[in-house]
TrEMBL record:
Keywords: Coiled coil, Cytoplasm, Cytoskeleton. Its main location: cytoplasm. InterPro entries: NSFL1C_SEP_dom_sf (IPR036241), SEP_domain (IPR012989). It comes from the Eukaryota. GO terms for molecular function: ubiquitin binding. It is found in: Cytoplasm, Cytoskeleton. May be involved in the reorganization of actin cytoskeleton mediated by RND1, RND2 and RND3. Promotes RHOA activation mediated by GNA12 and GNA13. Residues 36-87 form the SEP domain. This is UBX domain-containing protein 11. It comes from Hypocryptadius cinnamomeus.
Length: 87
């Protein structure tokens, strides 16, 4: 696993979705600015956690697919249903 590539690609993906940029959220009385909530990815020596999810060892196929997506420069496909515009 190329951790340097993963970290570099995460920075690039974050910039694509506008990290630190506020979005307009419409409310009943008008609108307000809102910053999207980040989804933390924690890398360990023997696995990862995504968000507040369970620990996932590197040997697990879903973990390997998630990291491969990131190393290929894409948002993890497992997150696309919940975050179609990236996270």
């Amino acid at each position: 696993i190329d951790f340097d590539l993963i970290l570099e690609n995460i920075k690039d993906l974050n910039s694509l979705v506008g990290e630190g940029v506020s979005q307009i959220e419409h409310t009943a009385r008008g609108a307000r600015l809102r910053r999207p909530e980040p989804l933390p990815l924690t890398l360990y020596r023997n696995g990862i956690t995504v968000g507040h999810g369970a620990f996932r060892p590197y040997q697990h196929p879903a973990t390997q697919q998630c990291l491969q997506d990131i190393m290929d420069g894409y948002f993890p496909s497992e997150l696309q249903p919940r975050y179609p515009d990236g996270v």
